[in-house]
Amino acid sequence: MNNLFLSMALLVLLIWPIPAATARLPIAMHDLDVPGWTAWQFHTHTSPPSKEIQAPVVKWQNGGCFNSWCETGWYSSPAVADLDGDGTMEVIASAYSIVVLDGETGAVEWRVASGHDRSEPDASNVGRTWPGIVVADLDDDGEVEIVTAHSGGYVSVYDHEGYFEPGWPQLSNDSGYAYGVFNANAAIGDLDGDGLGEIVVPSDVHYICAYKPDGTQTPANPIYGDKDWGKVGVWESLVVELRGWGECNGVREESYRTNFAHGPAVIADVNGDDSVEVAATGNVYDCSVGHPPGRYNGVYLFNADRSRFQADGYDWQVLPVDTGAPLSEDYDVIENNQPNPAVADLDGDGELEIIYSSYDGRVHAFWLDKTEHGNWPYAVYTGGFYRFASEPVVVDLNADGYAEVIVTSWVQKGSDQTGKLHILDHQGNLLHEVDLPPAYGSPDWNGSLPAPTLANLDADADLEVVLNTAHSGFVAYDLPGTANARILWGTGRGNFQRTGSLPPGTLEGSVKRVEPIQAEPGDTLTYTIRLENAGPLRPGVHVTDTLPIEVYYLGDLWASSGSYGEESGVITWTGDVSSNGLVTITFGVTVSEQITMPHAIINTALIDDGRGNIWERRAVVTANGYAIHLPLIHKH
């Protein structure tokens, strides 16, 4: 399976570091309803009652299908981007061929055969598409490229019009070889804090490799001796793991180890201490019997040095075990489950949970205390024909501070049934469940194997969810009432670069603006500061905004969370900015009547992230300016 390994490795190498223009998933701003607070008083925000989460509604279906059949969809999550810069979104998706669809209608804009581009309209596909579609500005020219990987070892890079970039496609050759990656296993992130990305790759053995950018292995903790990551076997028992080998004699401690053929890794700071961890899932088996059969899907949490996570009272040296036996591992019965982990803060406490779907027919969510809270795990299979669930996506649909989990499911072959779209609350309770379209044509089963993709496809403010189904093409659902949603893990492997990682929390993306930007003496100005955190919780953030002498505060300071106040012309705010969260601060002022000449009013806010970083954000108003009317020139 060296060709597939090459495909996955090239994919992650292509997109590090993530270009700033494409690094963040869309986050909608909150509509502002500003109460008239009194000046000189501090306030603490409490969340308004949450709005009911509405059921998804089919927007379009059978996208990319032909007259009487659809290509079989596998494990590739669609991507969404404005490819042509016209202000409307396209869906880029692939089962075998690569298809670009109009986001509003699902109509095909163009299609190319895998391994070929639009200069070869009659070409045949080289193979199925395995990992999710990547969209990123690879060459920093302001336009996104499309990256795809296929069976046979093909990796292609297209421009936004569907033509190959120079040097592509690439095919497996004698420049390298490896074995045993059967999923989008690789994750890329900065393990050691040097600003460069390491690549963590579980594979079809009981080892996890971690490579530096130059291809050398990352050293493991000295507790394992003089070993690198890739030479430390993953056993259920830490005693055996530290020894370095097990007897494989049928005694559990000596025999239970984990194969990662279908088990990806995720890189994220799970406890908000500015150090990243590696979460991974795999198939635990008895090595005295062999693999398969599996016993259960194991979940692991490692420090950056490969030692098992232990911090803040949490201890992963002893693992969660026996999470659920497989319903089936035979893809002739039902297509294989891929236990891709997602990480997100479900309950708003600033710590990340590990959520994954297992071959036991359930969706699991583990907190850092190694237990499943509330009504987790959630069962998509409750008897009868088998049903498996996809990689989860995580989103706070109604902006109440608690996240929802969305998965799709698929069913057993020969069942003449279809999968579902499932929406769960943060405690694992079912909110909505709708049937996916039936198979289009002759297939005797349907469903959706890859993670859904969350994005806004059209001109309204609400999100849509886009699916790659097995036998009904690409399908989109409207998610009504989600204009203020916060996307925490929005597509397969977390982002459209498919890195399997969350960036560290940073407030660098925070902004400040003012309306209007031109004013007369006595006019009212409204300032808005938006604190935007692209990663884990940022506790203890402090904002200071000293008002310029040319304006007078109106006493209407408001913030969507935290504590805030004004004294002697100084606006202050203190609080936490949640994981992938947004805080809005707004206040009004009037322009001094004493301004008689054109004058620039400069207002500066200082944002202290509590970690030694201070971000300065300015807004400028031109007061009492002169209008300049330029001539209108007609070209004949």
List descriptors.
single chain, 636 residues, mainly beta, 7-stranded mixed beta sheet, 6-stranded antiparallel beta sheet, 3 helices, disordered N terminus
Sequence-ordered SSE layout with sheet pairings:
Layout (H helix, E strand, L loop, with lengths): L1 H13 L28 E2 L12 E7 L15 E3 L8 E5 L3 E5 L5 E5 L21 E3 L8 E6 L3 E5 L28 E3 L8 E5 L5 E4 L26 H6 L8 H4 E4 L5 E4 L8 E10 L9 E8 L6 E2 L2 E2 L26 E3 L8 E5 L4 E5 L11 E2 L7 E3 L3 E4 L7 E8 L8 E5 L5 E6 L17 E3 L7 E6 L5 E6 L6 E4 L21 E5 L2 E2 L4 E9 L5 E9 L4 E3 L4 E2 L3 E5 L2 E8 L4 E10 L7 E10 L5 E10 L13
Parallel strand pairs: 33-42
Antiparallel strand pairs: 1-38, 2-30, 3-4, 4-5, 5-6, 7-8, 8-9, 10-11, 11-12, 13-15, 14-15, 15-16, 17-18, 19-20, 20-21, 21-22, 23-25, 24-25, 24-31, 25-26, 26-27, 28-29, 29-30, 32-34, 34-40, 35-39, 35-41, 36-40, 37-40, 38-39, 41-42
What can you tell me about this protein's structure?
The protein is mostly beta strands. The strands form ten sheets. A seven-stranded mixed beta sheet has the order 1-38-39-35-41-42-33, with no helix packed on it. Strands 23, 24, 25, 26, 27 and 31 form a six-stranded antiparallel beta sheet that branches. Strands 32, 34, 36, 37 and 40 form a five-stranded antiparallel beta sheet that branches. The longest helix has 13 residues, at 2-14. The chain is globular and about 85 Å long. The model is unreliable at 1-6, 18-49 and 174-180 (pLDDT under 50).
